[in-house]
Amino acid sequence: MRSIHVDTGVADALAAFEMPQRLGFGVLMAPVMYRCQYQDGRWWDAELMPYGPLQIDPAAKVLHYAQEIFEGLKAYRVDRDRAALFRPQMNWERMNLSARRLCMPDIPRDIFMQAVQTVTAYCEDFIPRNSGQSLYLRPFMFGTQPDLSVAAANSYSFLVIASPSEVYHSGSMRVLVERNDSRAAVGGTGAEKVGGNYAASLQSVQATLAKGFDQTLWLHPSDRRHIEELSGMNFFAVMEGELHTPALSGSILPGVTRDSLIQLARALDITVHERPMDIDDLLALIKSGTCTEAFACGTATIVSPISVLGDADGQVYELPDTPGPVARQLRQALLDIQEGRGSDRFDWMSPIPPECYP
Ligand SMILES: *Cc1c(COP(=O)(O)O)cnc(C)c1O
Fold first, then answer.
1. Of the residues 248, 297, 299, which should be mutated to test ligand 1's pocket, given the most ligand atoms within 8 Å of the CB?
2. What is the pLDDT of residue 171?
3. Among 3.20.20.60, 3.40.50.1820, 3.20.10.10, 3.40.50.720, what is the CATH number of 173-323?
4. Most C-beta atoms within 10 A of its C-beta, which of 110, 248, 267, 305?
């Protein structure tokens, strides 16, 4: 394994950390973080350090031109003695697709794995152990070169922070169809995990909340007809017992949870259709009772049932079954693997190597 410098403050930071009663999602930060910096064409030594503020040059490119990417994955310790990560290889591969899209250097596999494994190992005692709880890991990278010229930076920081968390938004959601704004563009960065995509979504999200809904449902940016996804979750609907999800369009983020649910559904003999999904067709199928369930999925939320779809014209379309049987079955099957109850038939769980522990 690559060597890692453990800061002298780490032991004190771990000893001083206290777990509160209520966790929320992504609010409480674990007491340590990982950092590796890229400069002069290479990655330098990695550090594990107490969680805390970063020093950043005010001219750093990320602060002006948004050269930033991130990932999200979880370490589980429910019904397990030792922590295990869920499909970290997928996050590493996707992070490098995002990096290439923003002209950033690839993160070598050993650096990415060392980062998520070491933070998980040091925080193992802080991984909550009730069903639905986990350590949410947030790898991210940004351009640090202090220079206002518009070009890719020549220096970067890659960090991993972590948050002991509950499931994100565990209730059922009211979702509003967005007919005007776009989250992503054709030829843009919708398929990559880029902070700027979220910035572009905020205006719609704010309006959605003000109208009494929980999430925006985005349509394809050029045809404004085909369903894409929610701001940070992929979309599924159930019709006559079969599962339908929008085919990846180039502006949809290819979710690890989406991929996992598709594989699980097929293994459970549920027919899966990845296809373009017209929003007006879907709303009509909800109205006629053919579409009985809709749900969203992502690492943070796992599976989040949708109870209502609202349209821009004020019409609301209620889903009868929330959470419906397919959503419940898939959520349980996925959690059983993540939380160590079911057999890991796809080899998705990745244990932490012993050498990562303090
Ligand atoms: C992260 C993300 C998802 C969900 O991906 P997972 O890998 O399942 O967590 C979906 N949509 C967007 C826009 C995202 O950023």
1. 299
2. 78
3. 3.20.10.10
4. 305
